[in-house]
Amino acid sequence: MRVLAALVALLLVLTGCGDDSEDRFARPGTPKTSPSGKFVAHAESASELRITDRNGGELFRKSYEYATSYRSDAIGVVWLSTKDQLWVLVPGGRMSERVEAGQDGVWTAVEAELPGEITRLG
């Protein structure tokens, strides 16, 4: 019995040490909350992004259909871990965008080079 308990404990530790990058991406039906907890990223489909406040009020929406129409892959949608900055990765490495609120509170997307934290997610 002790051996079984030790094996279960070891299994839990090993699975906890794995790569959690997959868990960080918003997917259709699985929205992800920003680091501050104030915003939520929704992958509405394989090519559409929506950002809401925590009460569901829409703050930003954009379709990436033009960039994904030639592939069957979906966009990647992930928050930077340290601030409310969302990154959108388009399949095939064609482009990436940073989406964040400006000083005026308006959310905008700009093409940008991925930070190391996001590129390490794969």
Describe this structure in words.
This protein is of the alpha+beta class and 122 residues long. It has helices at 2-16, 21-24, 65-68, 116-119; strands spanning 32-33, 39-43, 48-53, 58-63, 76-79, 86-89, 96-101, 107-111. Strands 1-2-3-4 form a four-stranded antiparallel β-sheet, with no helix packed on it. The protein has a four-stranded antiparallel β-sheet with strand order 5-6-7-8, with no helix packed on it. A hairpin with a 5-residue loop joins strand 7 and strand 8 (107-111). The longest helix is centred in the first third of the chain and has 15 residues, at 2-16. The N and C termini lie far apart (40 Å).
Question: In a few lines, what is going on in this structure?
Answer:
The protein is of the alpha+beta class. It has four helices and eight strands.
Blueprint (SSEs and pairs):
Layout: H1 2-16, H2 21-24, E1 32-33, E2 39-43, E3 48-53, E4 58-63, H3 65-68, E5 76-79, E6 86-89, E7 96-101, E8 107-111, H4 116-119
Antiparallel strand pairs: 1-2, 2-3, 3-4, 5-6, 6-7, 7-8
List keywords for this structure.
122 residues; alpha+beta; globular; disordered N terminus
Q: What's the tally of helices?
A: 4
Low-confidence stretches: 1-21
How many structural domains? Answer: 1
Succession of helices and strands: HHEEEEHEEEEH
Major sheet, described briefly?
Answer: 4 strands, antiparallel
Q: Count the E strands.
A: 8
* Overall pLDDT score: 79
What overall form do the CA principal axes indicate? globular
- Arrangement of strands in the largest sheet: 1-2-3-4
Report the end-to-end length measured between terminal Cα atoms: 40 Å
Q: Structural class, from secondary structure content?
A: alpha+beta
Percent helix range: 10-25%
